[in-house]
Amino acid sequence: MIVQTGSRDEDWRNLLFSLAEKEQRRELSERFRVASGRTWLLASAATPALVTAAGLLIARAAGDGQSFIPASAFGTVVLNAVTTGAVGEELGWRGFVLSRLGERLSQRAAAIVMATLWALWHLPIFLFPDSPYSTWPIVPALLSIMAFGLFMAALFSATRGSVIPTMLAHLSWNITLGIGGVQLSSNIFWWTLAGLFALSAVCVGSLERASRKPQAARV
Length: 219
Hints:
Elements: H1 6-31, H2 39-61, E1 65-68, H3 74-83, H4 86-104, H5 107-121, H6 124-127, H7 138-158, H8 164-178, E2 180-182, H9 187-218
């Protein structure tokens, strides 16, 4: 008696591939889901710009100002922001890393681990003498990136795993950092950003928990 296993094995492989593709499509749909209402989208775009503006004003008052870029260069800044990390990093760090950490850790622990790893991932660019980041103060700048990562994690959770708000936030920060007006070697600038982004993360988390309480009460 001859048992034909080839066709059966192929059927199983096709089934597994089909299930994997279905799961990938489901996750992509979830990652690019638009947050309900416009509040989170507006907060995502506005918060990094406002935080950076506050740091800029404080640093300029302390004597760490410099000229802004000319208006003709603004398009280049936006193009660089779109093509150098805001999209790819959000799919990778928030869409993949944070969501996987969230399956194994608490929401808070997952956010801290992701933000820490994301900040350390930027560390090498500070260490090359010909890098534009070599003049940035490493400790407050990395803490600012970590705090910004916590803010993005809070946005990601508040919008049920969508990367659209985090992409907007990332673009907003990259653009506002690129318009000039402040010396990026300023310690006071980066310490201000670190504190305000940490506060922003706490506020977003508190708003999310407050918004979920009425829903839990109705269940």
